[in-house]
Amino acid sequence: ETGVTQSPTHLIKTRGQQVTLRCSSQSGHNTVSWYQQALGQGPQFIFQYYREEENGRGNFPPRFSGLQFPNYSSELNVNALELDDSALYLCASSRNTGGGSNQPQHFGDGTRLSIL
Amino acid sequence: EDQVTQSPEALRLQEGESSSLNCSYTVSGLRGLFWYRQDPGKGPEFLFTLYSAGEEKEKERLKATLTKKESFLHITAPKPEDSATYLCAVRPYGGATNKLIFGTGTLLAVQP
After folding, report:
1. At B82, phi and psi to the nearest 5?
2. What is the mean pLDDT of residues A68-82?
């Protein structure tokens, strides 16, 4: 069984640039959630994708956007990067039947994004 | 507002010295409480899900319990390989998302 994989593992950008992070979900999982984890903090929910649509969002501005593809993989896009966007970005997948699920989310190892 | 508080922030144990980590939560309705382990430079690794007060789950040296206000992760006779950050998260009722609200974690160091 293949787990959640994310790419790239590390990325360095400058303020104002744009970035795209990628995630392949675990086999059999149809839902992808993205989290931001600052140093020394717990992960914070950015948004979730199910059936190729965003179906839930945390307190993040519109410059954080995403996509989900027919094979359930996903992208996180961040525009106009700011210094505070420096963090570990985690992707988590789970199996969802549409009304929300109590199945555990399984996480990838994240992309470490540094903004200079 | 839904909130999760973990204590202590850091804990240092000798190998074999049992202890407990605490997770206090405030949530409008609890769909589930989750424990994860996170090693440096890695993503969180799923340990347990608890759904209702009184429930207990065990795995090797770890045992998780749940009340209406808090959860405990008991570590019995820990080994150095149990050293990690332990994260607690709640999933509230409402909406179609699987959104998890995390605490800031407890950094556990087990010395040989």
Report:
1. -85, -5
2. 96
